[in-house]
Write a structure and sequence with these properties.
The chain is α/β, with parallel strands linked by helices. Helix content is 42%, strand content 15%. Helix 11 links the parallel strand 7 and strand 8. Helix 1 runs parallel beside helix 12 and helix 7 packs across helix 9. The site of phosphoenolpyruvate has 13 residues, from strand 8.
Length: 255
C-alpha cells in the first residue's frame, strides 16, 4: 500500500503573517490525520517561520525549487543545504511554471533531483503535457521525455525516495481538471514506464500525485483511481478550509 501524499504549492503567495496564520489553522484542523502525508511548500521567505510553526506536527514543509550546488556565486538561488537548514523535508522540482517561465529543462531537473537526494530532501518531481501537446496526441511522448530525462542515472534505491506529480499544464490554475480517467491513464503509463526503467517491485511503491485544479469537489473521485496516490494542490492550498477538506477527503478514500 502506498501512503497518500497531499502537498500544497503556495507559489508566490502569502506574506509572513498570512502564511503563519494559515499554517497554525492547518495544524489545528489536521492534527488527527495519520494516514496521509501532508506537505506545505511556501515561498522561501516563509520557510523558517513555517518550520517553527509546524514543528513536531504531522505537516512537513517543502521548498518550491532549489539550485543544485551546495553554495557559491549564484545570485538569487537557494541550495539544498539551505532548504534543509531552514527545516524543509521536501522540495518541488520541475514545476511547469519553472519550465515555462524560468528555462527549466529535463537536464536541470535531473541535476536538482540528484542534489535534493544527496541532502536527504524528498523531491516532488513534476511532469506533464501542455494543451497543444495533448491535442496533438503527444501526451505520452512528453511524459516519457520528462521521466526519462529527469530521472537519468537515478538509482532504484533513490527513486524510492521520490514522489512524482503528474500535472497536465492545461489544468493548472485554469479550473479545468483532468477527468479521473484521464489522470489514471497517465498515472498508469508513468508507472508502467517506471516498471521498465526499474522493476515492478520498485514502480509499485512510487507515489504518483495528480495536480491541476484539485478541489474538495474532485479529490475523492481522483483519489479513487488505483494509480492516483495523492495531489499537488495550488490555488486550493491557499485557504485553510479548502486544503483541510482536500486532506480529510483524501484520508477517507479506501482502495
Ligand atoms: C500547481 O501549481 O501545482 C497546481 C496544481 O495549481 P492549481 O491547483 O491551482 O491548478
Amino acid at each position: 500500500m502506498r501512503k497518500p501524499i497531499i502537498a500544497g504549492n503556495w507559489k508566490m503567495y502569502k506574506t509572513l503573517k498570512d502564511g503563519q496564520e494559515l499554517a497554525v489553522a492547518l495544524r489545528r484542523e489536521l492534527y488527527k490525520i495519520e494516514n496521509v502525508d501532508i506537505v506545505v511548500c511556501p515561498p522561501y521567505t516563509l520557510l523558517v517561520t513555517l518550520a517553527d510553526a509546524l514543528e513536531a506536527s504531522n505537516i512537513a514543509v517543502g521548498g518550491q525549487d532549489l539550485y543544485w550546488q551546495d553554495e557559491g556565486a549564484f545570485t538569487g538561488e537557494v541550495s539544498p543545504l539551505m532548504l534543509k537548514d531552514a527545516g524543509c523535508r521536501y522540495v518541488i522540482i520541475g514545476h511547469s511554471e519553472r519550465r515555462q517561465f524560468f528555462g527549466e529543462t529535463n537536464e536541470t531537473v535531473n541535476n536538482k533531483i540528484k542534489a535534493s537526494l544527496k541532502h536527504g530532501l524528498t523531491p516532488i518531481i513534476c511532469v506533464g503535457e501542455n494543451r497543444q501537446e495533448r491535442e496533438s496526441s503527444n501526451t505520452f511522448k512528453v511524459i516519457e521525455s520528462h521521466i526519462k530525462g529527469g530521472l537519468a542515472d537515478i538509482s532504484a534505491e533513490d527513486i524510492l525516495k521520490t514522489v512524482i506529480a503528474y500535472e497536465p499544464v492545461w489544468a493548472i490554475g485554469t479550473g479545468l481538471t483532468a477527468t479521473p480517467e484521464q489522470a489514471q491513464e497517465v498515472h498508469k503509463f508513468t508507472r508502467d514506464l517506471l516498471k521498465k526503467m526499474y522493476q515492478e517491485e520498485i514502480s509499485s511503491q512510487i507515489r504518483i500525485q495528480y495536480g491541476g485544479s484539485v478541489k474538495p469537489e474532485n479529490i475523492t473521485e481522483l483519489m479513487s483511481k488505483p494509480d492516483v496516490d495523492g495531489a499537488l494542490v495550488g490555488g486550493a492550498s491557499l485557504k485553510a478550509d479548502t486544503f483541510t477538506q482536500i486532506v480529510v477527503k483524501a484520508s477517507e478514500v479506501i482502495k
